[in-house]
Design brief:
This protein is an alpha/beta fold. Helix content is 38%, strand content 17%. It has helices spanning 34-44, 85-93, 112-120, 133-150, 168-183, 210-216, 223-227, 255-268, 282-290, 302-318, 341-348, 360-369, 373-376, 381-394, 406-411; strands at 25-31, 50-56, 76-80, 103-106, 123-127, 155-161, 187-191, 231-232, 238-240, 271-275, 293-299, 326-333, 352-357. The longest helix has 18 residues, at 133-150. The structure holds adenosine-5'-diphosphate and magnesium ion.
């Protein structure tokens, strides 16, 4: 929300225009130059739930935070430096560390000294013009949501199969449903298979808007608007599904949009379960990297084992996902199979968290009727195994392996 809508090109308020709304996230935009202020305003005002304050700096004035007491402090300062970056950054560094707020610096200065000073002043990002407005918007969204998530424990669990047909979608639906129904948590299930997904049938529901539309509007969405995209199941589970007929290539979706959407969902839900597509691309990698737990579902065959090994190597080595964040689930396990559980764990160099038995009858009944597996057979062996893995995921100790903070990811 822009509070000083009356701003015109030649009419910048000469003092801090304090946000009218006391709640929300406040961004201060100091103006050293008319054009840079206009550009920043046009980018920042698109973000839902934001209050903007502007401050025009007089000649010889370098510190936009000067004279703003604790209550007037914004949550974020976006400072577009001019050629006088040295006194501007020095003024910011002079603030006591305890009183520093997050800052995003925009500057075309390439000097290392400027970057070092910016970091010292509390910069969480350093952008060089011309920069992509999405880049700035996602940094702001990340900060807004990080502040929110710090107060709340949110777990994101991605479920991916080692090979098509392993049972990842059945697992995601059953897990999310049991979390919502048995733990009375606010749980969302996202169908990330943007080309072939259709999880709504597992719950006998019809898609309305779906993930693609939510992604397209991600920057404008707030928690209330997000509601409109979610399918509501009687268990309390909310599903963000793929609308049939929506066709888009994954590469046509900016991963920033997914990032923003996930962060918004993290504000609203306690658990987010994501049913991942088979292939890895920028979008799915972002979700995997953002996940607290990645569940890899495979079956008991050599070809599944080969693909699972390759996938685990990619997750660990290429995406840098810690071993503790990866849970392996062996579906349709048969203890008489020649390929033993021990061999599988040894080949994968990873423990199997749980095995799920073949349950053709109850699974068929569940899928054909659109009734979640737990509601069809709450005492079946497959559900008993699901309890075990669900508890491991809900375990609060898992929070420790959350992804690194914004600063580390930006500068790391
Ligand atoms: N343990 C199981 N017992 C019986 N049928 C299963 C089991 N796990 C999965 N299935 C069935 O196997 C098929 C493929 O499962 P699905 O979850 O769609 O796999 P994926 O998402 O990994 O491609 C579905 O028809 C599903 O209902
Ligand atoms: Mg699937």
């Amino acid at each position: 929300m822009l509070n000083n809508l009356s701003i015109r090109k030649d009419d910048v308020p000469s003092a801090i225009v304090q946000s009218a709304a006391s709640a929300g996230f406040t961004v201060m935009l100091p103006s050293t130059n008319r054009r840079s202020l206009d550009q920043l305003l046009s980018i920042v005002e698109c973000i839902a739930g934001i209050n903007i304050t502007t401050k025009q700096l007089k000649a010889g004035e370098f510190d936009p935070l000067l004279h703003s007491d604790a209550e007037q402090q914004p949550d974020l300062l976006i400072y577009w430096l001019d050629e006088r970056w040295q006194p501007e950054l020095t003024a910011l560094i002079e603030h006591p560390v305890s009183q520093r707020i997050p800052i995003i610096i925009v500057s075309d200065c390439h000097e290392q000294a400027a970057m070092r000073m910016a970091m010292k002043a509390g910069a969480i990002d350093y952008l060089r013009p011309p920069f992509d407005s999405l880049e700035l918007q996602s940094s702001i969204n990340e900060l807004m949501n990080d502040q929110n998530c710090n107060e709340k424990n949110v777990t994101i669990t991605s479920v991916i199969n080692a090979k098509g047909g392993s049972g990842a979608s059945l697992f995601s639906c059953t897990l999310a449903h049991m979390m919502a129904k048995l733990n009375e948590k606010k749980v969302a299930l996202i169908d990330m298979d943007i080309q072939f997904g259709s999880l709504c049938h597992y719950f006998n529901m019809d898609s309305k808007y779906g993930l693609i539309e939510a992604l397209q509007n991600a920057f404008e969405l707030d928690e209330v608007a997000l509601e409109g995209y979610m399918l509501k199941h009687e268990s309390g589970l909310d599903l963000l599904d793929i609308k049939p007929g929506d066709f888009i290539l994954p590469e046509d979706i900016h991963s920033e949009h997914m990032d923003v959407l996930l962060k918004l969902m993290a504000k609203k839900y306690e658990h987010i379960v994501v049913d991942m597509p088979r292939h890895l691309d920028a979008l799915s990698c972002l979700v995997l990297e953002s996940s607290d737990k990645v569940v890899v579902v495979l079956q008991q065959s050599i070809s599944h084992l080969r693909d699972a090994k390759r996938l685990l190597d990619i997750l660990r080595n290429d995406l840098g996902i810690d071993k503790e964040r990866i849970l392996v689930v062996l579906n349709r396990y048969d203890k008489n199979n020649d390929l033993s559980l021990k061999d599988i764990q040894k080949t994968l160099n990873h423990p199997v968290s749980t095995t799920l038995p073949n349950a053709y009858k109850v699974v068929s009944e569940s899928v054909n009727q659109g009734v979640p597996l737990y509601d069809v057979a709450s005492r079946s062996p497959i559900i008993k195994s699901m309890h075990k893995i669900s508890n491991q995921i809900i375990d609060p100790d898992g929070q420790e392996s959350r992804k690194k903070g914004l600063f580390n990811r930006l500068f790391g």
